[in-house]
Amino acid sequence: PADKIILELLEDIKPNQELNNRIKELVKKGYTIALDDFVYNSEWDTLIDLATIIKLDLTVTTLEENKALIDKLRDKNITFLAEKVETYQQFHEYKDIGCTLFQGYFFCKPERVSGKTIDTSSLARMRLISELNQPDITIDALEQIIKQHPKLTYNLLKYLNSGYFSFSKKPGTIKQCIIILGIEGMKSWSTILCLRNFSSKPAELRHMALIRAKFAELLAAKHKLADPASYFLMGILSTLDALTDATIENILKTMPLDKKIIDALLYQKGEMGQVLATVIKHESTTLSVDNINASSVYSEAYRWADKIMYSIT
């Protein structure tokens, strides 16, 4: 449907009356228009009035130039997107001048602070994620781990009884939830809700963690690799350095994990490491990599993560 599609006009397009008329028709049909890598010129005025999103390429224009543009167009109903954001400083600077959408690899980078250690609450969350995802955990053991954390218990019962699920009989206990979802399903949903507690970081980082986890799981299933659910955990763990601002080496010291996951996270070794390398490389390119038709799988993971983020916020 048109209202779900954003049409992007590239920076090398030459505005003219024919183009303006065609874009007007598309806007009337419900399409959203974005102007890519935008540098202001008066010949774009008509298209600016038709656009909803203007994308600012930080490698093409300066902060001062972009601030002047945002100030100039402040009375128009325009959403500004900063792309190729590489540092937290850039993120904060562009947020301050009026950008509300951001693209960039900085979301996956930890913010290094000299001498910083992992704070107690983050450490507890990471250990909980590790405990939840033990490979041979039983229903009873999983139930006991969850019940030791009242906030997680409450959030799980609240969420699993929400409109997102359509269970014929609403679960009233953690054990009932595990029986309905299965052990792997319960581990995944518990991990997702643990992620929500890293609230000091941009929501987009948690969104990316979910995309990465689901993408890895789907790739493993597509290629018939053993235990796809463990790839979901690996994807989540691969973003913990950015979520906690600690090194991945220090994080792994606090978590008793399978050696395959550790090797994948530290060295991108083994089948898990190859999948993680594919996932990370795909985040910075629009092409499939390593002869894997990953684009459609990535799109599926993105849609899933979008739906989850919407339902848990």
Secondary-structure map:
Layout: E1 6-9, H1 17-28, E2 32-35, H2 45-50, E3 53-57, H3 63-72, E4 79-83, H4 88-97, E5 101-102, H5 120-132, H6 139-147, H7 150-160, H8 174-181, H9 183-195, H10 203-222, H11 228-237, H12 240-244, H13 248-253, H14 259-267, H15 270-283, H16 295-312
Helix pairs in contact: 5-9, 6-8, 8-9, 10-11, 10-15, 10-16, 14-15
User: What Rg do the Cα atoms give?
Assistant: 22 Å
Structural class: alpha/beta
Q: SSE string, helix = H, strand = E?
A: EHEHEHEHEHHHHHHHHHHHH
Tally of helical segments: 16
Query: Could you state the CATH homologous superfamily of the largest domain?
Result: Hypothetical protein af1432
Poorly predicted segments? 286-292
> What's the domain count?
2
Architecture of the largest domain, CATH level 2? Orthogonal Bundle
Main sheet attributes: strand count, strand direction, barrel closure:
5 strands, parallel
Task: Could you tell me the CATH topology label of the largest domain.
Answer: Hypothetical protein af1432
Q: Could you tell me how far the N terminus lies from the C terminus, measured between alpha carbons in angstroms?
A: 25 Å
Q: Approximately how much beta-strand content do the residues carry? A: 5-15%
